[in-house]
Design the sequence.
């Protein structure tokens, strides 16, 4: 079985489109998205009146005078992984002053996008026999699960064991604690219990088991993230990196020795390592650049993974 | 809407960001500046190469430092732009392999950051000897220790110490090394300020007297050593301090490049960047370090001229390199000379402080190589084990494949003068790697339009041409001129026939590894082309 794994696309539509096309590009039988599907920011496009608009992306202000220009700007924002919305100065000020208001708008735009992505998957891969599995990550709100659950082509992985061509994939997007207090994070003992609950559903031998845990194992080289100061600045200009992975994930891998363990979460820590006989992969993420980092993995049910490649598509 | 008096004016919000992993408030330009300043290291690389100034007749060292320092801002723009478009660990390898091709990217990066750094170990060791072991040994009166480091076994010992230190710094991890560099920067800056103070507040007459005293007492030089140095070292072709011999000065720039071509040394380490401000921050840090170091060099040169005398400085260097010096065969390290105004123990302490410029810098000889090894192993060109780390996160195999060959090369460097001459192209090979990345930068807007247009640098243009391309062309002109002069003119010590053949062999080995790897991987059912091919988005 050839599996293509990518993760942390964070709302980038370019990356999602590439992900769907990866099956044909890499001749993969199964596509697995590891988590953190949703974007991090809303970008207002402000109506200045008289057919004029302006907006700012990456600290660069763009002035627009035609509908085509506005649409092109929206497309640019979507491709980068943010959500554009049209507004006027008065509404923008109201929105800025009411956190619950813009959070509501954020959720609306985010869920709309996930629904759109599910429809795109149906259109592109429905009926092809290619399996697609998504497992939301710690940055994804819980409402995302429901949309995936109801999708036709995409299967939800969170907390369950999914059978794929004789292999079983155990997934969770939960992570250990982060400084951002995200939606799916918990203390290590709780995470360990969550992992064990999911793993306990496995019915095949370890050679046919694949872990799809968003958080990488602690001190694996796949979990090196820049250290932060108290005021959330990168310490030593980002050069002081430290392991931030999960000890629970590491213990689970050491205890159960699956053939393959797929991770994400730490975008900068692209790579692979072995823990016991388990091949662990974090393909990294470069979603803002529209570059889909991934891994093509061939598994045949023998003791070790048959072959793998980290790709940058 | 009207603003009520006393309330802060409403500021239009251009972005609403929710809670999500990785959202940080940015990074300190000051910290990035420190690391870039360590790479363009005035004390280690600068002072060492400045001593070769007399080899270019009539050239003005002062002008060469200013002109090259200003021009190399183009290099910082090229690299800051590459980081903004493709912020990846692996730097030059990733950029060239993704924009031009995997074979070229691998060959250039492996030669320029890995193989050639084996050969930089004895160069670093030479600086360790000249700026640490010998001056401190001389102050302690250990003449045997001082002369030991002029012998092959001393050169080899210094190389082993250098390689082990670099390996140790890599093994403690980036976090530990970043902190050590910071401590060394502040210690080194304190030392530099003391040196500047000593040179500012003393006269040439006082220096002559001090030099005459310590050249005899500490270095067993001849009586009236200052005059003896001038007599033995003066030659008619020496450049004047403020001379405007523009043609000769331009010819000195390829020599100076040994010192100021490295503002981008940390470029292989970058991860995510966020926006245009990060692009500007990277330029500010790299170009700031380049300009500040150049200003530091100018101040140092002027103070040397003021207190020691420009003719004396040139003569001392000329005499040393021609073997007629007045300091017992010890390199006239300007820091040592500047400390002659104080007691030997204070001399010892100040030289120790200044050695922090070396100890904070020495890890760079392996650090960048380790990132290239990791990136190429993750792309499956090198075997999986090359990127393996232990439970403490130490990349022990990467360290071994840096350390082992560097020790073997250091041995031959120390004991075989023919081999020593083969290593003369060490700077040239890195410059050729920069050529690859700079070409990649220049064509990037056309080769990778989607990624380029999505980056924060797409808005920067000069007369309608992307800034990255304009800067790349300008930097290519610089590299082209330096490489041409290094190959064409014997004065730079790098147009050695044996060295060119040897370096050619290194490129051959790198290309061979890539070809063998592709064949082996294909037999294993893996097409390495998949690593670089972009998936269509539509």
Sequence:
């Amino acid at each position: 079985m050839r599996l293509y794994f990518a993760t942390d696309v964070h709302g980038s539509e370019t990356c999602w489109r590439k992900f769907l096309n990866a099956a044909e590009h890499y001749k993969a039988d199964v596509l697995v998205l590891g988590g953190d599907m949703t974007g991090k920011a809303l970008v207002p496009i402000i109506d200045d009146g008289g057919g004029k608009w302006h907006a700012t992306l990456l600290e660069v202000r763009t002035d627009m005078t035609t509908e085509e220009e506005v649409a092109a700007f929206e497309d640019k924002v979507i491709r980068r992984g943010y959500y554009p919305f049209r507004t006027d100065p008065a509404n923008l000020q109201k929105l800025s002053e009411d956190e619950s208001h813009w959070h509501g708008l954020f959720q609306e735009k985010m869920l709309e996008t996930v629904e759109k992505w599910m429809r795109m998957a149906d259109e592109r891969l429905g009926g092809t026999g290619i399996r697609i599995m998504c497992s939301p990550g710690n940055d994804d709100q819980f409402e995302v699960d429901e949309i995936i659950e109801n999708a036709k082509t995409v299967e939800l992985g969170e907390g369950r064991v999914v059978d794929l061509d004789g292999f079983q994939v155990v997934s969770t997007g939960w992570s250990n604690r982060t400084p951002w207090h995200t939606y799916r994070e918990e203390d290590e003992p709780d995470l360990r219990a969550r992992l064990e609950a999911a793993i306990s559903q496995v019915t095949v031998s370890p050679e046919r088991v694949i872990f799809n845990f968003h958080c990488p194992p602690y001190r694996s080289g796949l979990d090196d993230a820049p250290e932060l100061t108290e005021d959330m600045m990168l310490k030593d200009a980002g050069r002081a990196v430290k392991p931030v992975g999960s000890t629970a994930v590491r213990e689970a891998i050491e205890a159960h020795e699956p053939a393959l363990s797929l991770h994400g979460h730490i975008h900068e820590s692209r790579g692979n390592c072995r823990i016991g006989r388990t091949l662990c992969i974090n393909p990294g993420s470069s979603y803002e650049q529209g570059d889909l980092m991934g891994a093509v993995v061939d598994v045949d049910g023998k003791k070790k993974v048959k072959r793998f490649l980290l790709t940058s598509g | 809407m009207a603003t009520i008096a006393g309330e802060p004016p409403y500021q239009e919000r251009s972005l609403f960001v929710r809670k999500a992993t990785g959202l940080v408030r940015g990074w300190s330009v000051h910290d990035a500046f420190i690391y870039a300043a360590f790479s363009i290291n005035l004390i280690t690389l600068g002072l060492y190469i400045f001593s070769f100034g007399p080899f270019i007749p009539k050239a003005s060292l002062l002008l060469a430092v200013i002109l090259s320092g200003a021009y190399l801002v183009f290099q910082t723009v090229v690299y800051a732009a590459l980081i903004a478009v493709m912020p990846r660990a692996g730097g030059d390898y990733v950029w060239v392999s993704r924009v031009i091709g995997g074979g070229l990217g691998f060959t250039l990066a492996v030669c320029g950051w890995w193989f050639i750094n084996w050969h930089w170990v004895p160069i670093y060791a030479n600086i360790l000897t000249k700026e640490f072991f010998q001056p401190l040994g001389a102050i302690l009166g250990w003449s045997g220790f001082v002369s030991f480091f002029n012998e092959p076994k001393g050169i080899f010992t210094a190389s082993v110490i250098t390689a082990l230190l670099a390996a140790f710094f890599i093994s403690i991890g980036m976090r530990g090394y970043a902190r050590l560099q910071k401590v060394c920067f502040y210690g080194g800056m304190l030392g530099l300020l003391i040196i500047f103070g000593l040179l500012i507040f003393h006269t040439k007459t006082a220096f002559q007297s001090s030099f005459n005293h310590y050249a005899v007492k500490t270095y067993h030089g001849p009586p009236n050593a200052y005059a003896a140095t001038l007599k033995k070292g003066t030659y008619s072709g020496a450049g004047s301090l403020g001379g405007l011999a523009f043609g000769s000065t331009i010819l000195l720039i390829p020599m100076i490049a040994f010192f100021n071509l490295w503002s981008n040394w940390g470029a292989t380490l970058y991860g995510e960047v966020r926006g245009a401000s990060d692009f500007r921050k990277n330029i500010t840090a790299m170009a700031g370090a380049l300009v500040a170091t150049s200003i530091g060099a100018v101040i140092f040169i002027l103070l040397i001229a003021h207190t020691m005398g420009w003719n004396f400085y040139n003569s001392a260097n000329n005499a040393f390199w021609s073997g007629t010096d007045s300091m017992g065969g010890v390199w006239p390290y300007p820091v040592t000379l500047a400390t002659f105004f104080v007691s030997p123990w204070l001399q010892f302490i100040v030289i120790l402080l200044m050695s922090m410029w070396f100890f904070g810098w020495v890890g760079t000889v392996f650090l960048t190589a380790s990132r290239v090894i990791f990136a190429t192993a993750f792309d499956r060109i090198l075997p999986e084990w090359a990127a393996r780390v232990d439970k403490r996160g130490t990349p022990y195999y990467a360290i071994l494949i840096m350390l082992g060959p560097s020790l073997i090369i250091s041995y031959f460097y120390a004991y075989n003068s023919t081999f020593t001459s083969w290593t003369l192209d060490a700077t040239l090979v890195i410059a050729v790697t920069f050529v690859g990345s700079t070409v990649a930068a220049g064509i990037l807007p056309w080769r990778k339009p989607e990624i380029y247009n999505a980056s924060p640098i797409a808005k920067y243009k000069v007369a309608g041409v992307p800034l990255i391309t304009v800067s790349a062309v300008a930097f290519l002109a610089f590299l082209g001129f330096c490489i041409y002069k290094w190959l064409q003119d014997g004065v730079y010590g790098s147009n050695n026939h044996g060295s060119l053949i040897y370096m050619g062999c290194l490129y051959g080995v790198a290309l061979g590894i890539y070809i063998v790897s592709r064949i082996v991987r294909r037999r294993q059912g893996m097409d390495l082309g998949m690593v670089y091919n972009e998936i269509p988005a539509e």
Summary: Chain B touches chain A through 79 residues (CB under 8 Å). The beta strands of chain B are 16-17, 461-462, 465-466. Residues 1-5 of chain B have pLDDT under 50 and may be disordered.
